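Troubleshooting: if your tokenizer reports a length mismatch, compare against these two reference records.
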Amino acid sequence: MSGYILELRKLVGHRPLLQVGASVIVENSRGEILLEKRADNHCWGYAGGSVELDEAVEDAAKRELYEETGLIARELTLFGVFSGEGMHYVYPNGDEVSNVDIVFLCRQYDGTLRKQDSEVEQLGFFPTDSLPQPISPPNRIPLTRWVEQKKR
């Protein structure tokens, strides 16, 4: 969790916060997607997290990708901005957020795949038709759109 969000939580407790996220859907050369099993809710999703104050969204996406997976994005392409009721989420600890998730696609990357032990239980690449379940609730809408676009 970002330092900014942690500081806000000290003031507001579990009440809903508007949270801006920067996330990355990584595709390998076979068209498979990199997913991580989250340590907090034990669900699968893509790499991402909160944007810090004054941080560029692209920089936040690259930072989160590296922290969680060990991969370095060479190029990011905007996939979409996701918000609204379907992006509302209550974390297992009771913290409530209304997410605005800015999601990028990354097909060009370097580095060695390694998980961030504090936030990630597992990492793996999966084909479009065999995504692991359950998918983390805040990632369902963007991943559904990604799968639909891959089928076209």
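Reference record two:
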Amino acid sequence: MNRQRFDRQMSAEESLISRMERLYQDMSKGQKRLADYIIKHYDRAAYMTAAELGKEADVSESTAVRFAMLLGFSGFPEFHQSLQEVVRNRLNSVQRMESAMEHVREDRILDTVLNSDIDKIRITLEQIDRDSFRRAVDMILSAKTVYVVGIRSCAPLAAFLGFYLNQILEDVRIVNTNSASEIFEQMMRLSEEDVVIGISFPRYSKRTLKAMEFAENRKAGRIAITDSMHSPLTEHSDCCLIARSDMAAIVDSLVAPLSVINALIVNLAMRRKKEVMQTLNTMESIWQEYQVYESDEMEKISERGDSRETEEIPSGENHKKR
């Protein structure tokens, strides 16, 4: 196994904690207090700003920033992101909710969650690999069949992506069962001409990972949509689209992953513009004929109402005779 793959397999926890331990002797007294506090209270530190963390460890905000840079990060935000990966990987759902609720004021929930989502999209935009994005588009367009795998909380993302891919491509299959045997049954005809898109975010689904391993064994193309190069999906993927997904109490933020999926769909539609327009025209005719959407139904009701009014309103001459 080469060094690059080894580094990708390391968990965020191993990478961050091992760095702290390795550099501990070279730290100042204040930085050691920070390290001690973070190791002992990582679940709390993951939600703190540099100023808040410094206050808890009895050091200045600038010391917290220098501490992050000593560990090899470009600044405190990058360190904070890595620390949150530790929390996501170590805490179960109950512990995550307890930890998050300690640092989110109830009267600020809306602002906190929406601002957090904005940050996730901004970070994703800054960090996503454009070459990987273009490669993913090429792989999907050249595939005979596209399989989209998303389990549990990622099932809505898989359904959304699959819905629109069906309007662009000829053969798209959504795999979202929780049964391992059913996953393999649905993918039994997978070949090297096909592409599998695996979607998984912490806590990572073993079913999705098994599906990607199966695709690798079948020599099919593999695209991972996940949160980090530390994700286990990356080891079995040809192409990775990284989208930030941090926790907000009991739920994970999937805004940035959905935004990446939107961009993927738009790019695919632009590359297949003629075919997509033909498909949409056909679908619009079907929707109108079978009154799929409310606007169509309201138009029909309005037309019937106008017709009845014409029949019931007497002419001016007849009205005078009455």
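Descriptive notes for reference record two:
- Residues 202 and 318 are 76 Å apart (CA to CA).
- Residues 109-127 form the longest helix (19 residues).
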